[in-house]
């Protein structure tokens, strides 16, 4: 066989194991195929998004709730009042969606912002429409099931603003 010695053996297991303290050697508690990176030494980060008070006036502290069948959208006056608490967001002419366009430097930052909005939507169970390109990312929230704006749209917009603050 070409490329390796005739008496080739796999490296000792201690070469890719680390203990919780980061020391290598036999009897280590953690086996990591990504050695020498220390990614497996740390416990996974859990980022809970719980709702401490459902009646909280601060939208960013609330959590989205699934829409029940027949959920009615907010009328334009109610949506306008709720939009007043958000900076940089604008409402569509029909009061069916809210949009914010973020200006960033470069394409990579736009992709990162789009990923953040997608992550938030996935965690909240309320997914935005996202458009991005070089130097911008536009995020639009609407509740398709209700045919307009609901509390969930404003909650997600406030949470996105809080993540970016």
From TrEMBL:
CDD domains registered for this protein in UniProt: PCD_DCoH_subfamily_a
Report the GO molecular function annotations. Answer: 4-alpha-hydroxytetrahydrobiopterin dehydratase activity
- Pfam families assigned: Pterin_4a
Question: Which keywords label this protein?
Answer: Lyase
Report the Gene3D superfamilies cross-referenced here. Transcriptional coactivator/pterin dehydratase
What InterPro entries does UniProt report for this protein, alphabetically?
Answer: PCD_sf (IPR036428), Pterin_deHydtase (IPR001533)
- Where does the source fall among the domains of life? Bacteria
Q: Where is this region: Disordered?
A: 1-24
E.C. designation(s): 4.2.1.96
Which catalysed reactions does the entry list for this protein? (4aS,6R)-4a-hydroxy-L-erythro-5,6,7,8-tetrahydrobiopterin = (6R)-L-erythro-6,7-dihydrobiopterin + H2O
GO BP annotations listed: tetrahydrobiopterin biosynthetic process
PANTHER family, per this entry? PTERIN-4-ALPHA-CARBINOLAMINE DEHYDRATASE
Q: Which family does it belong to?
A: Belongs to the pterin-4-alpha-carbinolamine dehydratase family.
Name of the protein: 4a-hydroxytetrahydrobiopterin dehydratase
Q: Which organism is it from?
A: Paracoccus liaowanqingii
């Amino acid at each position: 066989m070409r490329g390796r010695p005739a008496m080739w053996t796999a490296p000792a297991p201690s070469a890719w194991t680390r203990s919780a303290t980061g020391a290598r050697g036999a009897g280590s508690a953690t086996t990591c195929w990504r050695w020498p990176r220390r990614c497996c030494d740390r416990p996974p980060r859990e980022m809970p998004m719980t709702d401490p008070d459902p009646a909280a006036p601060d939208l960013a502290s609330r959590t989205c709730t699934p829409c029940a069948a027949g959920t009615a959208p907010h009328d334009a006056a109610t949506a306008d009042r709720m939009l007043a608490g958000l900076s940089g967001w604008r409402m569509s002419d029909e009061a069916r969606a809210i949009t914010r366009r973020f200006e960033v430097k470069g394409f990579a930052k736009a992709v990162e912002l789009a990923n953040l909005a997608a992550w938030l939507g996935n965690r909240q169970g309320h997914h935005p429409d996202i458009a991005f390109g070089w130097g911008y990312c536009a995020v639009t929230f609407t509740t398709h099931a209700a045919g307009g704006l609901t509390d969930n749209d404003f909650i997600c917009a406030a949470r996105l603003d809080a993540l970016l603050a």
